[in-house]
Amino acid sequence: MDFSNLISDKMLxxxxxxxxxxxxxxxxxxxxxFAGGVPAPETYPVEAIKEICADVLTxxxxxxxxxxxxxxxxxxxxxxxxxxxxxxxxxxxxxxxxIVSGSQQGCDLTAKVLLNEGDGVVCEExxxxxxxxxxxxxxxxxxxxxxxxxxxxxxxxxxTLKNNKNIKLIYTIPTxxxxxxxxxxxxxxxxxxxxxxKYNVVILEDNPYGELRFSGEKLPTIKSMDTTGHxxxxxxxxxxFSPGLRLAYLIFDKGLTEKMTVxxxxxxxxxxxxxxxxxxxxxxKYDIDSSIEKARQLYxxxxxxxLSCMDTYFPKIVSYTRPEGGIFIWVTCPKGTDTGxxxxxxxxxxxxxxxxxxxxxxxxxxxxxxRLNYSTMSDERILKGIRILGELLTEKL
Amino acid sequence: MDFSNLISDKMLxxxxxxxxxxxxxxxxxxxxxFAGGVPAPETYPVEAIKEICADVLTxxxxxxxxxxxxxxxxxxxxxxxxxxxxxxxxxxxxxxxxIVSGSQQGCDLTAKVLLNEGDGVVCEExxxxxxxxxxxxxxxxxxxxxxxxxxxxxxxxxxTLKNNKNIKLIYTIPTxxxxxxxxxxxxxxxxxxxxxxKYNVVILEDNPYGELRFSGEKLPTIKSMDTTGHxxxxxxxxxxFSPGLRLAYLIFDKGLTEKMTVxxxxxxxxxxxxxxxxxxxxxxKYDIDSSIEKARQLYxxxxxxxLSCMDTYFPKIVSYTRPEGGIFIWVTCPKGTDTGxxxxxxxxxxxxxxxxxxxxxxxxxxxxxxRLNYSTMSDERILKGIRILGELLTEKL
Lengths: 397, 397
Description:
Two copies of one chain form a homodimer.
Chain A: H1 9-12, H2 18-26, E1 32-33, H3 46-59, H4 61-65, H5 74-88, E2 95-100, H6 103-114, E3 120-125, H7 129-136, E4 141-148, E5 151-152, H8 154-163, E6 167-172, H9 186-198, E7 202-206, E8 231-236, E9 248-253, H10 257-268, H11 273-285, H12 288-313, E10 319-320, E11 328-332, H13 339-348, E12 351-352, E13 354-355, E14 369-373, H14 379-396
Parallel strand pairs in A: 1-12, 3-4, 3-6, 6-7, 7-8
Antiparallel strand pairs in A: 2-9, 4-5, 8-9, 10-11, 11-14, 13-14
């Protein structure tokens, strides 16, 4: 059937993520794929989860399998808030929390609560394609602010806020950003917060990778410096526990509680109770910190090994970030390079990555940058893949 | 913080569900609550789920705990489609399926894909408050069509479609409707489909209770009669397996596949993989039909017992539906009765129900109807609660 007269305006412009097409290619086991963005499965605490499932279904199956509260499972909410107070120094007074079905849903609910069609969202340029697409499904106007080595360019951010009164939201991933691996410096964090306060817009601080620091000094979250309620904080269990269980959390000023709760209720009633109980038991009875520490060591090794291979095999006209955590490296080729064309050539040689245009507010303009992921890769595949990429770059650039 | 200048127009008008307030009251264990709408926990196949969890986490933990496809876990999709072909006679050629995080999300995605702000949605009057609220979060205009004993009044439906060119969607629960317990007759089903085709609007057929028939003759789903692709079918595991695992499915014409997939992706990436694997294993290795049969017998007894108590204790000026399945009875008091006031009085006497206005397009107008639920009630509590309600009705009416 032809639905063209029936599709909503907001969905007309949104295409299936370009990354998905690349994932299809990259699913070929012969391809060495640096295109992914998933945690290493060996970091999932499988044995603990198995024990907890048996326990929960023995002692509390009715609760686990029944409807739950839209705001989330109370013991999990409390455990997360306690963790945020102690680990991230977030003052949770006058704050509320909702457990959501993954970070993307946190972004979706924030967009639903704040955005009319045509309202503006500032994002880092480049930024996480998934959330950019979420904003697009609200017919929001995206304003990309270029990234310096220490995060968003504050002068351009202020200029953007000053000139566009339709802006309601700044979307930022300040720590080990996807796709760039960049960590916003303290001055940029403070600057973003001051500008949000000055122009009365909300900051959505998306922090899925923050706990995966393997070098350098920890920086405070923007939320921990927020005394006015302008920051909505989005944390996730996907990179430090399990992505398949779809668990994340929004922490926000109580002034948003009613609308956030109604939005969650109208979107999917509540988050999977069984998953919430598994995470809650895990936080209370097992040692998540030592599990995260193992993941950090794993990613530190893979990142450093990939960087050392790049240092060896990449031509010197190519530059790249040296992340202090997270799972991504961002590569910058000489201006004018079309990394989309480069990717198609790389796939012929059995290596995949994501060209930079996928992460831009204008996905149709070619980009001279691309994203590499190392989180699930053996040394052997890193070496082989980076060598092939290095040859390709040397040949083409 | 005061967010009043920042909240989206679509969320301004949506209030926390009135039912939630009633649920808070009803959570008092001293209250006999007929206000619920949840399945009986004794119908959850706990032992099977426990076995499956152990198996899945032993043999396939990486898959269970990792990211999955936006469209859903392939073996579950196939098992559901096969079941829909054999049990519901749905022709799945040219149809696609997406596994969603509960029926409410199926409604949310359908709304996202189809509705601009101000577009119209026809619903039964009364209808399921949860999905009405979903449509409200899209700033849709709701057109309630009154229910006869055999479903929507087709003449009023046609009049409504003819006079309102903004209508894109008809939302119906044709079988054991929530809240009325009414089952739409074959002629109404065919009539709705013909009108949807004539006016080129989509029918969202929400069928969470269809498998819970305990008397009367099975009727075909509207989807099984759909040869043009106008019907989006929404099925659920919540009432026949477990609501806490948040599993439902949308079946729709392939013309909607791309937009439905992108909507799911932008909303929460994908449905909980572990839950999907549990349901998939259950469908393949256990006997869901005998489990559903047990639920049917349980609800048949509770429904018949509640009706027999109502026959004994309710005054004759009160009428009510006699459902052939599902979990709700709809009570109609003489016109002019305010069942909201009645409910407040009932709660003082330790009995709760949901006043009818909660299910109307205009929730602020008093209703002379109310909803009773029997699915989780012991005979003893049914008898005691209905006797108290009968006394109250006799006194007040």
